[in-house]
Structure formats: C-alpha cells, structure tokens
Amino acid sequence: MATIIEMPKLSDTMTAGTLVKWLKKEGDSVSTGDMLAEVETDKATMELESFEDGVLLKQLVKNGAEVPVGSPVAAIGEKGEKFDPSSVKQESAPEKESEQDAPKKEQTEEARTSEKAEPREETASGEAGGSETAQEEPPSEPAPDTSRRLRISPLARKLAREKGVPVERLKGSGPGGRIVKADIQAALEQGVPADTGKDGAGRSKAPAGVPAMYAASGGTIAEEKDIPVSNMRGTIARRLLESKTQIPHYYLEVEVDAAPILAARASINASIAELPPEKGGGKLSVNDFIMKAAAEALRRVPAVNCSWADSSIKQHPAAHVSFAVAIDEGLITPVIFDAHAKTLRHISAETKDLAWKAKNKKLKPEEFTGGTFCVSNLGMFGLDRFSAIINPPNAAILAVGATRKIPVVSGNDQIEIGHRMALTLSCDHRVVDGATGAEFLATLRNLLENPALMLA
Amino acid sequence: MPQITYRKALNDAFAEELERDENVIMLGEEIAQYNGAYKVTEGLHARFGDGRIMDTPISEAGFAGLGIGASMLGVRPIIELMFWSFSYVAFDQLFNNAPMIRYMSGGLINVPIVVRGPANGGTNVGATHSHTPENFAAYTPGLKVVCPSNAYDAKGLMKSAVRDNDPVFVMENTLLYGQKWDVPEEEYLIPLGKADIKREGTDISLIAHGRCVITCLEAARVLKEEHEIDAEVVDLRSIRPLDQEAIIDSVKKTNRAVLVDENKPFCGTSAQIAALIQEHAFDYLDAPVKRVSSLDAPQIYSKPLEDEMVPNAKRIVKAVQEIL
C-alpha cells in the first residue's frame, strides 16, 4: 500500500508551498532522510524530506506547482507496486505566477549583505525586494500555530533561547529531522539571529509567534552579574574612547541613488552566480560595491587616505579598506589590502573569506591591522543612517545605512519610487577638512550612481 | 604491575580480609573442601580452616538466615551464592530480613554481611540460572549493590564491602572470572558509590555496570575506529549507592546517553538511570536517552540466540547511531 506524501507545513505561516524542483525521479528508491524535492515556502526554499523507505511511485505535482499544505505531492511504496493516481484527491492551487514573479522583476536589493550578515547566509534566490516592506506593514501577530510540534532537543531549545536564535525556520539535522545543538551552533555561525525580517525571496515575513524569551514575565530581565571585560572588549573600549575624545570628529552625509548599483549587481550576478567558485562564481553583495567604490574614491581623493601622526600627516600609497564585522565578543575590522587594485569579484571573495575567518576566530593579526579606511554597514538592521567613530589611525570611516524604497521627485517633476541609501562619513578634522571630505563623499556618490565610472 | 584474573583478585580480597579481621568468615555451597563451584575460594579452606570457611547444605534460605543471624552478633559473614539466581530461594532472608533489621531495631543492630556470587547470562545455562537481580536489590532500601567490571575493581570493591556495616550484595560474572587485568600487589580499597570513567569521550556517554562496561569499551572502540564517534564509558561500579553526580556530569558533557545493562528492560536498572538523567540533565540532552538491555523474555537457552539477547557491541553501536 503506497504512502501518500503531503505538503508539510514548513513554517508557522505557511499555507501553501511551491514545488520548485523534484530531486527524485519516479522509480527512484528513497529512504528516510532523503530529500525528495525543493519546496519554496513563504519564507525560504527548503527541502522536502522523506520519512519513508521505498520507491517514489508517482510525482503527483509538477515542478513549479503551488500545493496547499496537506495536499498530496507524491506516493511512496514498494518496488513494482502499482499506484493509481486517481485514488488521491488532487488539490493544486491556482497559478499565482504574477504574484510570485513580481518581487523578482524589481531586482532590488538593500545594502545589508555586508559585515553583520555573513555573506554565506545569502539565500539561493538572492533578488531581494525593497527593505521598506517590512516597515510598511503594521506588525500583526498570527495566532501561534500549535498544530505543528517542533522537533528539537531540550539542549538545542535551551541554547536557542539563550542565544536568541529563532528555531522555527531551522532545519534539523538529527534523527527524524530533530533540531540539535549542532544546528543551533551552525545557525549562530551563519548569523541567523540577525533576522532581517524578510525571506530569501524578498517578501516580508510575518512575525512568528512571540518567543518565550519575549513573553511578559514578572521576574528580572536578566541575571544580575559582573561580566569580566575580555581582551577584545578592553581594546575596543580603550581605542574608541581615545578616538572619540582625541579626534575632532565631524560628519558629512549624502543620500545615494542605489538603483544603479542594484541593477549592476543583478546584471553581474546573473552571469556569475551560478559559476563554480574556481571559475570566479559567487554572488556579489551591495557591500562589495561599496567597498570597491570606496577604494576607487580613495584613489581619486587620496587626501582622505591619510593618518595623523602628531608632527606630520602620513599619506598612504595604497587603499587598504577595512570593514567592521560583528562577532560574539565585539567587533573586528579585517582589511582588504590594495583594494584599489582589486576587481570587484576579488574584493567580494576576500570579504567573504575574511568575514568567515572573523566569525570563526581564525583571523591572523596581519589580517586585521594596517587598514587606511574603514566601512561600517548596519543596513541589515534596517537603520536609515548612523555615524561611526573613526578607527584610529584612519582619518575617516564610512557608515552605510539600509537601502530604502522611497518616493522621489524625478527629473520631470514626477513622484517616482526611488532607491536611496544614506552614507555618513566621519572625518578627522586634523587631517581632512570639510571641503576634502565633501569632495570624497561626492566622488563616492558619483561612483555608486554611475558604476561604470569605476572602470574608467 | 602483575596481571591477575578477576577470580584471583576476589580470592586475594577474601584472604586479606580474613587475615585482617578474625570475625570475617565465609559460608556457601562447596566453597570449602571443593574450593568453590567457580574456584573463587580456592585455597582459603586449607589456609583458614573449618572455623572460618564453611560448607553449607544446599539450602540458601537456611545459610542466608544463618549468616544474617551471626552478623547481628558481630560476625562478618561472606555468603556465597553459587548463582545469584538462587537468591530467589532465600528471598525473604536476603530481601526482607537483611535490609530491614537495622531500621526495625531503631539502628541498634547492624547486619554486616556480604552476599556474593555470579549474576549473569550469556553462558548457556538456561532461564532459571541466568538472572541478574541487581535491580531487585537496588530497589530495596537498606541494601547496597556492587557490580565490578574488572579484576582491579572487584578486589577494591569487595574489600570495602566486607568492611561495610550494612548488607552488601556483590554481583560477579562467570564470564569475567578467567579474564586478567592489572592489579597492584599493595593493598587498596575502592569506596562504594563512586563511579569510574573507564574511557573519556566527548560525543556520547555509555553508562553501564558489570561486564556491560567491557562490552561498552568494545563498542567505543568500534565507534571510534569505524564511525569517528568518541564515546565516554562510565562504569557505575555500584548501583546502590549510585554515583548520580558522575552520571549527570558525563551527560552534561556529551549531551547524549546510551544506558547499557544486562537486566531485562522493564523496570531494569537503566530505567532508573534514565529517569535520573531526564530529571537532572533535561536541558543538556540533545537526543532521547537510549537503553540497551537484555531482551524482555526468559533467558533463551540457545547459545546463538542468547548471544543476541544480552547486550553486545553491535547492539550498542546501533543504538548510538540511532541518536547521533
């Protein structure tokens, strides 16, 4: 007797899933734990796992079909078993092509793929929609779904609670798909807690049920204790206090039209994303473009690529651009050396590598010292703008906000949807005067709004 | 360090204690002139004589009661059961009288007896000779239960048992009697209620007692060599008192446990350990606790089937793989 595999509820808010691609053919033998198909939910693309042993007798839906939760997708039985498809009720949902394709056509992306969110966490679908969607929709809280019991070990549940890892979306690697400690650790390494409020396809994600840690409680909000200052925390405290008290900071800000780099990114990614890494494949993030443009702007305005050295101002011969990476103990700024002489792809690959090393504490000292300029990106938190403290001995630091979709006045006085990203430059006035800082920022803006200039 | 058999280690323990304390005597079937059914008391009758090493009639209830009565008057009898399965004949004396007297007398009378003998299956001796009643004994308040897994532990634990002022049931294993381990010549004691980590590991805790510890070590070797799994092996040594701290510490370290014992599974010793773990280390568990026990049936007489009935390394490895 064949077992009918139904569309599982893979997230709290899922009502239907799109069967993106079958991974097993009819007639293939399957065993428990095998992946039958890729399923796109309202949140992410996940794999449909088999909890049966046998042979895939029949695929009841085609690639691309949207299937309501609970409807049959496949039949698994014994080898040679006859299966009559008419014996199961088919419930294919109406095609929703336009709705699904809409966000992809916009080809937009916000600048949040940089330092906090590790580049490796980028989802397969990539083309994310505008980040404003998450802010537009009033937060509504769907009733917690009690129909699906999350399979998670007590230890994993405790760790997730302590570290604030949302477990609803995690895929368990334990027996029967149970979420275990290793899955929480992997999620932490990939930066899952930096929840962007959106899924890989760019649609805004309804808030999941309120985690227990946020529930009202009569107790204290945290244990009272003195946390010892780690070496890293001590260094951050000392150097930034020194910077903020000794360097005369001032701040310049521009709003950049982000549409051109989003378009450039989509166009480049379309041709290299699928390539294997050894052939230069991989996806570029918006932050990669900012790193590249910053290096190029430093070449054009070298007065910013300097350091105050008390009796002199040291001008650096190369743009060594560092970027801030948040890690468990604090933050660290690995350096892309000679960024002015590196291709976008080179910068992207190196950024990914350094960010991974930073998060796994594998950075060597020479990989995070010697920068001449720093980029800090908090766009993934949805921040519009912020100002950063200069990382001595640099003379400036660039703070990058989120890319937002906002109404803008076009050239012919029409209100249009535009993509805007705020860049804030913090400058050391001892080295960089206002006019020089402004020239740098204008140059940077020009490069970002006309990415082709980076070739010239 | 000399290597001696489990049998010899026990024999040495008796000899040392008989030598040390003239109140120590031994009782049992064929232990004196015949040197013991399993030769564990070999040479002791010749050395210590009729007054100390006594053959008894084939009457477990009789000589168990004799030993208990003598112990109430200051003698420290070591009572041998040819098989622990025969304790059932003396159930009232061993499980009802011995453990209750101290309590019933308001603490005035102690019962410093050691009851010992083999308690194991796996030897093709049939359903009525293969019982492992450590769970019955540990269940009973007032009894201490010791299950040594090797010669070194057997000697050190036996000497502590003889010196203990309460009834201590020592369950040995006929399959271990002939096996050799390093045992120092100098005197040592192993306290009751102290578990021993026989193998350090990080991935899973195998918790066992008696010969199952040896089986676990074999399983741990296979897990390491063939599956890159680093198992920790915890030897409980005594079931009562139980080293709860060692169990919980190990589970907190590895986050997974497989409990191995030769008891039948229903209300077996490992059921108690599992209950403790879920109560005291719930938030440290990354997988359900697994048990590998004897199969839930009267001991199978067929040797090939009995070998599958009692825990073996293959079953332990399989259980580990099911939760890792």
Structure notes:
The complex is a heterodimer of chains A (456) and B (324). With 456 residues, chain A is an alpha+beta fold. Among the domains of chain A are: 3-87, RNA polymerase II/Efflux pump adaptor protein, barrel-sandwich hybrid domain (OB fold (Dihydrolipoamide Acetyltransferase, E2P)); 231-455, Chloramphenicol Acetyltransferase (2-Layer Sandwich), CATH 3.30.559. Chain A has nine helices and 18 strands. Chain A has helices at residues 97-106, 132-136, 154-163, 181-189, 231-246, 259-272, 286-300, 344-359, 434-449; strands at 3-6, 16-22, 29-30, 35-40, 45-49, 54-59, 66-68, 72-77, 249-257, 306-308, 313-315, 321-323, 325-327, 330-332, 335-336, 373-377, 396-409, 415-428. Chain A has a six-stranded mixed sheet, covered by helices on one side. A four-stranded antiparallel sheet of chain A has the order 1-8-6-3, with no helix packed on it. Chain B folds into two domains: 3-182, Rossmann fold (3-Layer(aba) Sandwich), CATH 3.40.50; 196-323, Rossmann fold. In chain B, strand 2 (24-28), helix 2 (44-48) and strand 3 (53-55) form a beta-alpha-beta unit. The two termini of chain B are 38 Å apart. The chains are: A alpha+beta (456), B alpha/beta (324). Chain A binds chain B through residues 153-158, 174-175, 178, 180-181, and chain B through 255, 282-287, 322-323.
